[in-house]
Design a protein that fits this description.
With about 260 residues, the chain is an alpha+beta fold. It is built from five helices and 19 strands. The strands form four sheets. Strands 5-6-3-10-13-8 form a six-stranded antiparallel sheet. β1 and β2 form a beta hairpin.
C-alpha cells in the first residue's frame, strides 16, 4: 500500500506536452509555481513552504530549512498544492515549460528514490519528498556539469519530470557503463554510480567542442537521457541573438553568409 497519494494521469501532446492528473476526493498533487495549466471546479489551490511531504518537519524552522534546500537546486521557495475538495473525481493539468517530453516516474517501482538534474521536476503526488542530493566526489561536483547538488525525489507515489528533445530510458546491467554529455543526464535511480571522466587527447580537448569531461553512469539501474538540454538550446538562441550574431539576415550579405554556413535561404 502506498503512503503517498495515489493519482492517475494522462500525458497529452508530442513536442509540447502537458500532463493531466486525476484526483480522487481529498487527494492532492503538488507542483512547481508556473507549471499550472488548467483545473476543474472543485479543486482548492494552496501555496505551501517546501514539498508538504511527511518527511518535512512541520515546524516553522523545519519548513524554512526544507524551502532553503529547494533554493540550492534552483527551485522556488514555495510549491503549490492542488486538493480535490469535491465528492467526485477532478482533473488538474500541468504544462511542460519548453519543447521536450514529460517523464512519469512510479517511485514505488524504482526503489523509492530517483536522482535528477536541477529544474527537471514538474509535479508529483502529495507525500513525495523533493530534496537535494550532494555529490560526494570532489571531481564529480566540480566538473560534472550539474555541480555538487542535484535533486532527489523520494517516496512511493507518482512524480513527473520534464526534459528537452527526445528522452531515452535505458536500463543498465550490473557493471555496464555508458558515457554521456554531462548536460544530457535527466535522472537515474539511486543504485546507479555517477562519476566523470576526462575526455583525453589534446585535439579532443582543444577542438572537440564537447567539453573536457564525460559523465559516466555505471549499472545496475535505470537512467533517463535527453537529446536536447535546455542549456544547449539557450546557448544556440543566444548565439543568433547576441551582438556578435549576424545582423544582416535579410540582406544580400546575410544570404551569402548563410550559403557559406551551409544554411538555406
Amino acid at each position: 500500500m502506498r503512503s503517498n497519494h495515489e493519482i492517475d494521469y494522462r500525458i497529452y501532446g508530442e513536442e509540447m506536452q502537458y500532463v493531466e492528473v486525476e484526483l480522487d476526493p481529498q487527494e492532492t498533487a503538488v507542483a512547481e509555481p508556473g507549471s499550472f495549466m488548467m483545473m476543474d471546479d472543485g479543486l482548492q489551490m494552496e501555496t505551501i513552504f517546501g514539498d508538504g511531504s511527511a518527511q518535512q518537519n512541520n515546524s516553522l524552522l523545519g519548513k524554512l530549512f526544507s524551502a532553503g534546500k529547494r533554493m540550492l537546486v534552483g527551485e522556488n521557495l514555495f510549491m503549490t498544492a492542488y486538493t480535490n475538495v469535491s465528492n467526485t473525481k477532478r482533473q488538474v493539468c500541468f504544462a511542460a515549460p519548453y519543447a521536450g517530453k514529460i517523464i512519469p516516474l512510479d517511485l514505488q517501482q524504482l526503489g523509492g528514490k530517483v536522482i535528477c538534474q536541477k529544474d527537471a521536476f514538474l509535479c508529483a503526488a502529495k507525500g513525495v519528498s523533493i530534496g537535494i542530493e550532494f555529490q560526494k566526489k570532489l571531481g564529480t561536483g566540480l566538473f560534472g556539469g550539474e555541480g555538487f547538488i542535484m535533486e532527489k525525489l523520494e517516496g512511493d507515489g507518482m512524480a513527473f519530470l520534464h526534459a528537452g528533445g527526445y528522452v531515452l530510458e535505458k536500463i543498465l546491467q550490473p557493471g555496464e557503463l555508458i558515457k554521456i554529455d554531462t548536460g544530457c543526464i535527466v535522472g537515474f535511480t539511486a543504485n546507479v554510480d555517477y562519476d566523470i571522466q576526462f575526455v583525453g587527447g589534446i585535439k579532443n580537448t582543444l577542438f572537440g567542442g564537447e567539453g573536457l569531461f564525460f559523465a559516466t553512469l555505471r549499472g545496475p539501474g535505470k537512467v533517463w537521457i535527453q537529446s536536447l538540454p535546455v542549456s544547449r538550446l539557450a546557448s544556440r538562441i543566444l548565439a543568433y541573438g547576441s551582438v556578435g550574431g549576424r545582423k544582416e539576415e535579410g540582406s544580400v550579405l546575410g544570404g551569402i553568409g548563410n550559403l557559406l554556413d551551409g544554411d538555406r535561404w
